[in-house]
Amino acid sequence: MVDRISNYATSTQLMSYLNRTQNRLIDWQFQLSSQQKSADYQGISKNAQYLLGLEASRDAIGGFQKNNEIMNVRLNITATALTSMETNINDFKKNLATFTNTQGKTEANIATIQQNAFNSLLSLQAYLNTPVGSRYAFGGGRVDGAPVDLGLTNLADFQATFNGATVSYPTTRDAHIENFTIAKDSAGKANWLTFEQDGDGNTATAGTGTITATTAQFANVSVGSTIEITGTTNNNGTYTVKAVTGGGTKIEVVTRMLTNELNNAAAVITPSGGTALTLDDFTDLSFDRATNRITVGAASLGTNALSGLTVGSTFTVSGTAQNNGTYTVAAVAANGNTVDIVPKKLTDEGTAATPTLNFAGNQTFTVNAGDDTISAAAGNYTGVTAGMSIVIAGTASNNGTYTVTSVASDGSSINVRQTLTAEAAVASTAVVSNADGTIASRTYYSGDELSLTHRVDDSRSFEVDLNGLDPAFEKAIRAMAIVAQGDYGTEGGLDQNIARAENALYLLNSAYDGTVGGTAPYGDELTSNIKGLQVTLGYQQVLIKQTTVSHVSYKGFLDTQIGNIENSDELETITRLLDDQRALEASYQALARIRELSLINYM
User: In this predicted model, what pLDDT tens digit does every residue of 441-453 receive, in sequence order?
Assistant: First the structure.
């Protein structure tokens, strides 16, 4: 082999040169086919950091664009719903204004405006439940059900619940948006309520129905709100909160019951729209709470004195000590001697668990000229209040349930309404028990008030916080419901409470565009209105539109800059590819020729 001109070292060196050329040729082929300078950042290492920054900015803008597209769809759907609600509210507002200006309102036009109010409520509910993808436009962040439920079926059912007298639709925002459900006291006890038909237990004074809890569970309940009571034996139903007392332990509810009163000669009954029934028709009247009955005096019996009253109509009582007011007729005796009113009152109620009083010991039962007395040692009846029901057991003659009318200051005795039998120091028990039950507000909104922040770009954002509790919607719902409540000819009917129409018109004007005059009928109202919401929504839509234009322009600029760094020049690539191809071919030819050379050829 000594005769070879080339050696191993020379061959290796030549092959390395060929490999370099071959690698360059492969790179040019990749750039030509992919239109990019390199398959990774290493191939453009000098510009890699700058390129990464450009790509990050482009990707961020792409994210903003996608989110803005989704938000723009939501805003467009919301805007459509708002426009529909604007039309709905404005149409009803015009109809109500026409109604208030109509002289000599008839049953027909009252029925028309109340049906119009109810239909408008149905429409408003539908618009507030507008879906957007997997959620609702006015439901906040909740996605598990429609956010607004006004409990509407038909006008008659609505008026049966909200009769406008004993149960009135809430007139203030605080009462309207109450949202709570309470089924036990703060100690977790479910037997926690005492229902009293009359808080003071005295049938000769005005009756006040009360619901008392063992702890201050009612401290934040709003006066005027509507509550639903369930889970009790006798007191389930819908009530209007009249007052909250006892440091939050007691609710007084609106009731309708008579006060015991005998032979009142000054009493006057005036039928709705009729002439007063006075002393020409009867000499005196008696009122009885237990039977809900008004009875004429002995001199008027059989004279048809009350025959002018009809079932379902209303009448007003005046001239009495405790019974002045408006009542609805439940029944009238055929001979005109009595009229029964439609009552609204609680029933004394409790269960045996966790009683307010659970006494066992000697008790004495005393018969008096007035209320009879049950007594024991001092302090044994502490905690008992007038109006509570007490259950006596273990006696010879006095076992039963009694209504407490008063309690001694030292807790040593109680007076009861019912008649006792005299017994001295008999071993017995006395129990005043609490009741099971759930008290819940009647709320129309089940969504939430979650406020979402939507970013349109790095520096600008806006809040998405519109939901079904917005005052613009709440005022409109309240106005429509106030008009719709109460059946014609009843105590709570619109015909008997025509001022409701004017009050509702104020709320509608405030809900529509905020343009109101005069004094707010139910206190100061929040200023949000449909027109204002549309302006805010329009601003958000314009912001997204302008930002989208900006994003498209800037993203195009970034794509150009990224392309300048990443993309290869086709002409330059082809030229260099051909150069290296020719060089490689020539190199292989030269190498082949060199390997053929030998000293023998020169000898």
Answer: 999 999 999 888 9
CATH for 81-175+448-537, options being 1.20.1330, 2.40.50, 1.10.260, 1.20.120: 1.20.1330
Contact 281, 299 (CB under 8 A): no
Q: What is the pTM of this model?
A: 0.79
Asked if residue 159 lies in contact with residue 168, where contact means CB atoms within 8 angstroms, the answer is: no
Sketch the domain layout of the chain as residue ranges.
8-34+568-602, 81-175+448-537, 178-253, 261-341, 357-432
- Is 181 exposed, middle or buried, given 0-12, 13-18 or 19+ CB atoms closer than 10 A? exposed
Confidence category of residue 312, pLDDT binned at 50, 70, 90? confident
Q: Are 259 and 266 in contact (CB under 8 A)?
A: no
Domains 81-175+448-537 and 357-432 alike in fold: no
- Best CA proximity match to 282, nearest among 307, 265, 270: 265
Q: For residues 238 and 162, what is the distance between their CA atoms, to the nearest angstrom?
A: 9
Cα(508)–Cα(199) distance, rounded to whole angstroms? 38
357-432 in CATH: which number? 2.40.30
Determine how many CB atoms are found less than 10 A away from the CB of residue 241: 23
Residue type, 155: L
**If DSSP codes are grouped into helix, strand and coil, which group holds residue 22?**
helix
The sign of the CA dihedral 448, 449, 454, 458 is negative
As a 3-state breakdown, the chain gives helix, strand, coil percent values, each rounded to 5, of 35, 20, 40
Token digits for 380?
A: 């044994």
Nearest to 503 by CA among 518, 514, 489, 488: 518
Residue 206: C-alpha distances to residues 164, 323, 409 (Å): 21, 8, 23
Which SS3 state, helix, strand or coil, does residue 502 take? helix
Q: How confident is the model at residue 1 (pLDDT cuts 50, 70, 90)?
A: very low
159-204 pLDDT, tens digit each: 999 999 999 999 999 999 999 999 998 888 888 998 989 888 788 8
Phi, psi of 28 (to 5 degrees): -65, -35
Distances (CA, A) of 451 to 7, 138, 381, 533: 82, 11, 53, 15
pLDDT digits (tens, 9 = 90+) for 211-234: 999 899 999 999 999 999 999 888
